Amino acid sequence: MSNLLTRRLALLAEDRHRDVLRGGLRGIERETLRVQPDGHLARTPHPAGWGSALTHPEITTDYAETLAEFITPAENDIATTLEKLDGIHRFAYSKLGDELLWSESMPCQLPPEQDIQIAWYGKSNLGMLKHVYRRGLALRYGKAMQCIAGIHYNYSLDERLWRLLAENEPAGKPLTPVAYQSEAYLSLIRNFRRNSWLLMYLFGTSPALNSSFLRGRPHKLETLSADTLYLPHATSLRMSDLGYQNDAQSGLSPHENSLDSYVATLTRAVNQPYEPYQKIGTRDANGEWQQLSTNVIQIENEYYSTIRPKRVIRTGERPIQALCNRGVQYIEVRCLDVDPFEPVGVSLTTGRFLDAFLLYCALEESPPISEEQGDILARNFARTVKEGRRPGLTLTRDGQEIALRAWGEDLIERIRPAAELLDALRGDTQHVDALAQQAPKLADPDRTPSAAVLRELARHGNSFAAFGLAQSEKHAAYFRAQPPTAEQEAHFSALARTSVAEQAELERTQTGSFDDYVKAYRASNLCPNHA
């Protein structure tokens, strides 16, 4: 452990400071495809009983109309967050008819592109903006990409904790509390970049996919069966170069050495024309909007990243404006696969491990990352997602090759004091136990969930579609056997009614044309210092 980490852990362990560790928040966004009973993509619109996808705070859609997204409120304890996520699933299933929620990150058997519906949010200018943005994504990445699901983990530490650390740092350049907190979250993000390969090894669950996903594109996957492609040692094909990647974004590397450089990079990307997109134009031959702009990215959320600095946005505000105006409030971890063995897609053990991992990343020393170092970190991540279970696999650390297993075991030991501190607060051993459950995976790649997926595929005729459907049916039976309580039913039904009324009010009261709305949106200064 570094001296800084040791000193910070000791500070937080003092009785008078312990309370600041209780105050952070955890939220989960779980994406999941709606599918027919035969495992094929649903053709129906967003279920009316769920409410409005535009204005509902907890049940919406992501890219495709059939890609549901369940968003929990932020809670102090990940166990409470998962209870809330379970409640959303129970209610969702009670309004789903005979459809199922797909259990995997990679999509089910997909129909032709024209039969995949882009998410629809109604006729308000805001709703149309969200829809046209997704039309642009379909043009840029293809619709199959819009059917990939993941788990997003939102994490914050108490703002009092950052102030406490600032007061006890060696004298240096004085920063305002907002600036110190923002730079501290950027430090967390840099350490996440250094170590996130470990999450993909321990929790990746997408070593295979349905062959319909690739749409005939060239690839280097191996054939497992007539409908299934895979890589024998992969952990997460979702997070490989088969996912949300394209040439336009290839030059966008994370500039997370400071908030200023991060903001500047994204501001440049949303304002920089990209010739292939310019040739397509913002409108089709009939004058219909088909993308919001012809720039490298249409809006800042299009920048695909495994982790993002975030700030809750206000009405009419863009994400980067929120960061500029009020600093970083939390981080969003975006690389977790949906766990097909868990009804809600993620386990409590994974959550406890993540909390210890992220606290370690927040407290450990985190020097700036050079461009060359960034390339090495990206290569470590890419190696792990495509061949993480390969015997003897090495990664690059401090200019030397090191066995993945040895580095992983070393990291677990470095994270342990953070886990012990969290357990001391709770009076139990849940975080240390979560760490202990990872050791067998490092000792034996066959104990990883990605290996478990391949074993289950073998039991289902090596068919990704058959395995995915079987798990989806199992989870559906679980939720249908435990419908929402009367209290949950009343809560979510009220949210649904309110969301429908809010969308109707938006459509009734809006003024101005959509063209003017887009023009104003594009012209809004992302950040005064980086325009």
From TrEMBL:
GO terms for cellular component: cytosol. Belongs to the glutamate--cysteine ligase type 1 family. Type 1 subfamily. The keyword Nuclease does not apply. GO terms for molecular function: ATP binding; glutamate-cysteine ligase activity; metal ion binding. NCBIfam families: glu_cys_ligase. This is Glutamate--cysteine ligase. Its EC number is 6.3.2.2. It comes from the Bacteria. Residues 10-382 form the Glutamate--cysteine ligase domain. InterPro entries: Gln_synth/guanido_kin_cat_dom, Glu_cys_ligase, Glut_cys_ligase. The keyword Nucleotide-binding applies. Pathway: Sulfur metabolism; glutathione biosynthesis; glutathione from L-cysteine and L-glutamate: step 1/2. PANTHER family: GLUTAMATE--CYSTEINE LIGASE. Keywords: ATP-binding, Glutathione biosynthesis, Ligase, Nucleotide-binding. It catalyses: L-cysteine + L-glutamate + ATP = gamma-L-glutamyl-L-cysteine + ADP + phosphate + H(+). GO terms for biological process: glutathione biosynthetic process.
